[in-house]
Amino acid sequence: MSAIASDTVLAVFLIFCRFGACLMLMPGFSSSRIPPKVRLGIAVSTTLALSPLLIGETAPLTAQATPSDLLRVIGSELLVGFLIGLMGRLFFLALQTISVSIAQAIGLGGIPGLGVDEDTQLPPIASLFSLTAVTLMFITNQHWLILGSLVDSYSAIPADSGFNVQTGLIDIVDQTTAVFVLALRIGSPFIIYSIIVNFAVGITNKLSPQIPVFFIAMPFVTAGGLILLVLTAQEFMASFIGGLQAWLLGG
Fold first, then answer.
1. pLDDT, tens digit, for every residue of 18-66?
2. How far is Cα 51 from Cα 101, in angstroms, rounded to an integer?
3. What is the pLDDT of residue 141?
4. pLDDT tens digits, residue range 108-137?
5. Ramachandran sector of residue 90 (left: φ over 0; alpha: ψ -120 to 50; beta: rest)
6. CB atoms within 10 A of CB 120
């Protein structure tokens, strides 16, 4: 293999480091239910498809680079990709958190179930919301926006600039705040519903302690919560997908 060919392979490998680290965490691509060979194939194929656009960013870093320089750049690209993937995954972690809160608010939190992306126990409502969010992400072609964001990331974080730890931590904190504010906003009807219903049940139980009001009211609380879920589910998911799309477009 000639020296030029070696530099080209290394330049493409640097692109793969950022793409692979991002797709390893990005929801929809990183599910444990997808075979590892398939996930690896997606990362490799997207890298090879987009490398003609990006090889000019990484090629100067491999020309006459020492092994220590290559290790530093590889580590930096892995951290950048990890940061982008983690920021995208925070959306779905916030969605799972508010979905579990909704299930508990309407009395369905004790029903066992499994998550979509991981083999963790989640209430069926949380699994339903997670599955719907992943499905909508692909239906609305936002997986292409993810790849476009990775390409645009070379303008915001060039490969030769390295990974700034302080900036990365600030981005993670800001993103965590933004996504959980979004989750709180879309789950607020159920939080208000839970406060009102539990306050009413508590007052009623206080006025008639000899009657097990809580156990009698639970089917009605669950029924009311399901009705509220039917009425707000469309706006719920539209707000979530809109927030995800705004982040992918705006970076």
1. 999 998 888 888 877 788 888 888 889 999 888 888 888 887 877 777 7
2. 43
3. 86
4. 777 766 666 666 777 888 888 888 888 888
5. alpha
6. 13
Return the amino acid letter for 42. Answer: I
Helix or strand or coil: residue 117? coil
- The pLDDT assigned to 114 comes to 65
Residue 114 dihedral angles phi and psi, to the nearest 5°:
-120, 150
How many Å apart are CA 161 and CA 220, to the nearest integer? 59
Give the alpha-carbon dihedral of 230, 236, 242, 243, to 10 degrees.
-170
Which residues, other chains included, contact 32 with Cβ-Cβ below 8 Å and sequence gap of 6+?
A: 117, 118, 119
Residue 233 CB: number of other CB atoms within 10 A? Answer: 13
- What are the helix and strand counts (H, E) for the chain? 7, 0
User: Which amino acid appears at position 244 of this protein?
Assistant: L
Beta carbons within 10 angstroms of residue 52's beta carbon: 9
CA distances from 149 to 57, 116, 205, 213, 247 (A): 15, 24, 54, 53, 9
Q: Which helix (H) or strand (E) holds 105?
A: helix 67-105
Q: Is the pTM of this model over 0.85?
A: no
Q: Cβ–Cβ contacts within 10 Å for residue 200, how many?
A: 13
- Residue 1: pLDDT over 50: no
Domain ranges of the chain: 3-250
Instruction: Show the beta-strand stretches assigned E in 14-88.
Output: none
Which tokens belong to 167?
Answer: 């900036």
Helix (H, G, I), strand (E, B) or coil at 114: strand
Token readout for 219 is: 């089917």
